[in-house]
Specification:
By secondary structure, this protein is mainly alpha-helical. The chain has one domain. It has helices spanning 2-24, 28-60, 65-91. The longest helix is centred in the middle third of the chain and has 33 residues, at 28-60. It is elongated, with a radius of gyration of 23 Å. The mean pLDDT is 82.
């Protein structure tokens, strides 16, 4: 008896959860477009960072600057991508 009641309760919870998920899920095409836009934004941010780091390496004649520039570049790319994707999905574009 207890199991049957627990099973019905879990089914109700699952239906409620699925209904909430259905409202938040975007179509695959829109998600793919948003991922492409976010990737483009991350690339656009990374190009100036790479150019500036190259100029700094030439001016300072210190190749170890590239290690720090690489870390900064990756962090900026990941944060730009994730922030852009979140904004695009929130706006529903």
């Amino acid at each position: 008896m207890f199991r049957r009641g627990l099973h019905k309760h879990s089914l109700l919870l699952r239906k409620r959860f699925e209904n909430k998920l259905d409202k938040k899920i975007l179509s695959d095409e829109r998600l793919e477009i948003n991922i492409n836009k976010s990737g483009r934004n991350a690339f656009i941010v990374s190009v100036p960072v790479f150019a500036v780091s190259t100029v700094i390496v030439v001016l300072l004649k210190d190749i170890s600057v590239y290690t720090y520039a690489f870390v900064v570049n990756v962090v900026l790319q990941l944060s730009t991508f994730s922030i852009s994707l979140r904004l695009y999905e929130k706006r529903g574009e």
